[in-house]
């Protein structure tokens, strides 16, 4: 991790003014798109991700169908204007494939797939603005879009990351903080029971004693996020 920059000042504030364990403000808007069964746009800080869901519907390709549960597919696109520099829109890249795989893994863990045997659920994610983990943002937007589509799920999903920087435990890292090359723990937990982990990954080496602290920090961030999600659901209903 770079030591040439101070990510938490003497007052205990991060570069964007947050406390170390404080999540960025999140705006959740359901039903932002037509022509699909469910959709959601999530804005967190300067990050913006849209997700749409089509299904559960009959599988078009019978060779891909399953008689015991639904088939889940996901396509991810990163807009040309999403990052700091304009570039060609990214589809079918290694990054988009990794995000897609993570979304599918989480969805398969929480959706009651046997209820939709022989059907397909397709999720499309578009990353419009990048400021933080695109994978985390995509998981959150996709799971909220599934809720809008009224797909049966075991629980709400809250995906959060955490890292230790200069002896501070930070949650919900921004793009600038991630560029410090610190070791990051990313997790997705269920909202009502944050000890129930449905997905996790780490970048860099994390000592066992630090791993426990990072997990607790991420679970604390998930609890904050779950409060925001519950409020958004109440407004929707």
TrEMBL record:
PANTHER family the record matches: EXOSOME COMPLEX COMPONENT (PTHR11953), EXOSOME COMPLEX COMPONENT RRP41 (PTHR11953:SF0)
SUPFAM superfamilies registered for this protein in UniProt: Ribonuclease PH domain 2-like, Ribosomal protein S5 domain 2-like
Q: Which GO terms describe its molecular function?
A: RNA binding
| Record protein name field | 3' exoribonuclease family, domain 1/3' exoribonuclease family, domain 2, putative
Q: Which GO terms describe its biological process?
A: nuclear mRNA surveillance; poly(A)-dependent snoRNA 3'-end processing; rRNA catabolic process; U4 snRNA 3'-end processing
- Residue ranges occupied by any Exoribonuclease phosphorolytic domain in the UniProt entry: 22-151, 155-219
Record lineage: Eukaryota, Discoba, Euglenozoa, Kinetoplastea, Metakinetoplastina
> Which superkingdom, per the lineage?
Eukaryota
Known Pfam families for this protein?
RNase_PH, RNase_PH_C
Database matches in Gene3D superfamilies? GHMP Kinase, N-terminal domain
InterPro entries found in the cross-reference section = ExoRNase_PH_dom1 (IPR001247), ExoRNase_PH_dom2 (IPR015847), ExoRNase_PH_dom2_sf (IPR036345), PNPase/RNase_PH_dom_sf (IPR027408), Ribosomal_Su5_D2-typ_SF (IPR020568), RNase_PH (IPR050080)
What protein family does this chain belong to? Belongs to the RNase PH family.
Provide the leader sequence positions.
Answer: none
Which GO CC annotations does the UniProt entry carry?
Answer: cytoplasmic exosome (RNase complex); nuclear exosome (RNase complex); nucleolus
